[in-house]
Amino acid sequence: MNYTQKFLFITLLLSSGLAYGQLTEDPEDRRDQGRDPLRTQTPEGRPLPFVQRLRFGGGINGFRFGNPFSIGVSPVIAYQATERMIVGIGGNYTYTRYKGYTNTGATVPLQTYNQYGGRAFVMYEFIPSILPNLYLHGEIENSTVDIKFDQTGQKLSDGLTSPLVGVTYSQPISRRFGVNLTALYNLNYNDNNLARTIYGSPFVLRLSFF
Q: ∠ CA 157-158-160 to the nearest 5 degrees?
């Protein structure tokens, strides 16, 4: 390869790299200009593609050791609809096991709960100039609980649909990921066995990541 060919080859590489950088430019680059990155636009003002507005994550919920033992997962898919609004859907599954005691003090399986469901939510950043990243939060959650009485083999199933309202504070880690602390109030909470089984109280606290 002579000098002319080498020069053309290096020029081509540099040009390709520059073009690729322009095509993949991220709103995080706005930080170099002293401004926060936009959530739905490129630095040039073009709308971000649908995929780049999506967030994926979730959390672990209902975690308890001992009696009862409980653990749950709650995956989330969220979409940055506007600069201040996030909409999304999520699922949840929680496994809970209760044990009883015999006359000799030994533990035996007593009840097993399988709780599962889904939710749709919307979050709106309502006072960004005063408290950035604080969102009004509303959602509809549907939950079903399957209960098995281990000693008799009897099974029961019931469900509950609940509207929840409250606030979420989101601490961004990157443009498409953050730590979210949510406090909600269940508008459909009744002090009955099913509501106590699913929620425990009308107040719902969550820690999630998306």
A: 155
pLDDT of residue 165: 98
Whether the CB-CB separation of 76 and 60 falls below 8 Å is answered with no
- Written out in words, the top-level CATH class of the domain with range 49-209 is mainly beta
DSSP calls for 94-154: EEEEEEEE-TTS-EEEEEEEEEEEEEEEEEEE--TTTSTTEEEEEEEEEEEEEEEETTT--
Divide the 210 residues of the chain into consecutive groups of 10 and give the mean pLDDT of each group.
Answer: 44 40 45 66 88 94 82 96 97 92 76 95 96 97 94 92 97 90 95 85 93
Cα separation, 152 vs 133, in Å, equals 51
Question: For position 200, what pLDDT does the model report?
Answer: 84
Q: Distance of alpha carbon 47 from its chain centroid, rounded?
A: 24
Asked if 177 and 196 count as a contact pair (C-beta separation under 8 A), the reply is no
**What is the predicted pLDDT for the residue at 36?**
66
Phi, psi for residue 48 in degrees, rounded to 5 = -70, 145
| Contact between 110 and 152 (Cβ < 8 Å) | no
Cα–Cα distance list, 95 to 14, 169, 170 (Å): 55, 28, 27
What is the distance between the alpha carbons of residues 77 and 98, in angstroms, rounded to a whole number? 32
Q: Read off the pTM.
A: 0.76
CA atoms within 13 A on the CB side of 4: 0
Close Cβ partners of 35 (under 8 Å, ≥ 6 residues apart): none
